[in-house]
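Letters spell out the chain; the tokens describe the backbone. To illustrate:

===
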Amino acid sequence: MNLSNDIYALIYLVASILFIFGLKGLASPKSAILGNTLAMTGMAIAVIATAIHPDVTSYWWTIAMAAGGIIGYVIAKKITMTSMPELVAAFHSLVGLAAVFIAVGTYFKDINLGHIEALTAVELSLGSAIGALTFSGSVIAFGKLKGTFKFPLFSSNPVKFPGQHFVNLIMILGIIGLCVYFSINSDSLEAFLILTAIAFILGVTMIIPIGGADMPVVVSMLNSYSGWAASATGFTLNNNLLILTGALVGSSGAILSYIMCKAMNRSFISVILGGFGGESADSSDDTQVKKNYKSAGSEDVAYMMENSSKVIIVPGYGMAVSQAQHTVKDLWQSLSDKGVEVKFAIHPVAGRMPGHMNVLLAEADIPYDVVLEMDEVNSEFPTYDVALIIGANDIVNPDALTNKSSPLYGMPILEVHKAMQVFICKRSMNAGYAGVDNSLFYYENASMVFGDAKQTIQTIVNAIKGTGH
């Protein structure tokens, strides 16, 4: 179809606007479905417009696109919410690898046509370097999040080696130097391949020293990298839509990383330098107090909750692992039917990715107006008779407020310990993802409720309804 360049520019502009509104919609659970629909519509418009562009003379690539679409559909149907973070990391790796392939393919295409322009060489080197770093870094992040691989590099604990920061700095300077050299000597395939290989290695050495507690920030950061890789590829392909789309993904990922770092009281640089996560259990002065904890049965929790006026529920990764969100919905409904006011408290980094808990609660059709963010609810905790924590750990650890020797100190938390009575639903007394012992377990007003989250909550619901086990 022979449309003018102005028409194509207008079509791409419409697609870009839909992407922007899509991102805006994804900022809230209430508008997330609409935002997703707008973004998908924009992508459909962009793909169709590109397919009918006169520069496209062969359509063999549509076979690969169709195969990718089918694979994506199958994965999306089978994936569980607990596996969503590693899925995102895996997809980021594919974006990075695509950027490398495009840069390499463009190099050989242009070199066969003659000399490569300096500006093109800059675009190729940046696209390949960022793409390679994104690919290898995302693969390591995937392994750390998956947690089932025995390979040492995939350990959720920080993997450190002597002089790691110096080595990383040398590689970064080496990549920059080779990019400059390649822009001047654009016929040098060796320089291009060496800078790409160094970037692959840098992606590994940058991510392995980052502990499991910082993985949500790392996933967001790699999301940003994948966007900039796509944007650099857009310059290489002279595709304005890809440039803009990549910039949107890159900037939004960077902003989200900043927000998450702020929520964890961590600087972006400290995350990149790594080392947070996998620390030994806290050894503060009140160790003797921490040796003693109380436990409670599900029937005790049910009795306390149904005889309360206000109850707050704090979901965490344990709820996601046991897929207890629908059972939690039953608990909310049962208590509400008895006239108990029930709210949910969400920490910005609860789970393994931003919005993890919000999505699970929305999946269970829990109303948005009873789901409160940390800033909204922290001042209200003293007014709640009962707080029920379901699998959350680091985000409710009071040491973040009181214990200066704790690695968590300074991290904003949900101040659940201020509620009248706190019940903590966990499988064991094990530390959380940061590897830090939780002093809340030993508070006078706190009791442990051991067991699988879904089974425990179901027992509580049965007791409230008077149906027994």
